[in-house]
């Protein structure tokens, strides 16, 4: 399992660590209108999953804005999700205030389905740790980054390059 800290303290990640070459695990999370979202909903597209602890923090805000900006150069065959345990209503409010329109915010608050399937659920905090996953059009994982310190930024350039390599 990936080793992660949160504010320099070790935390326990629950679920299965995902590795490059794995078939992407399925999940059920919620869109901002409370409708379910699964892996199948974006079937045939390249997916970037940007996982954050909470949109209402500085690094998570910056991460979501960075991938929103990158979306313009990635084309229509790419779907970018920001996954957190924030309530769908809070995500929708945040997106409106931040002008986020190319990234879909989705909530794992109800079942922690994504968190456990991708090994990003922090047991002690009931938050998701910071991570990035790229999944190709055939549901194969092609890029994985579990950020070692959950309050640090991910490697944006590497994640975006991984998406561009598939496009």
* Cα end-to-end separation: 30 Å
Which stretches are poorly predicted, pLDDT < 50 over at least 5 residues? none
Mean pLDDT, all residues: 95
Could you estimate the helical fraction of the residues in percent? 10-25%
> What's the count of strands?
12
- The succession of helices and strands, N to C, reads EEEEEEHEHEHEEEEH
Catalytic activity: a hydroperoxide + [thioredoxin]-dithiol = an alcohol + [thioredoxin]-disulfide + H2O
InterPro entries: Redoxin, Thioredoxin-like_sf, Thioredoxin_domain, TPX, Tpx_CS, Tpx_Peroxidase_subfamily
Pfam families: Redoxin
Active site: 60 (cysteine sulfenic acid (-soh) intermediate)
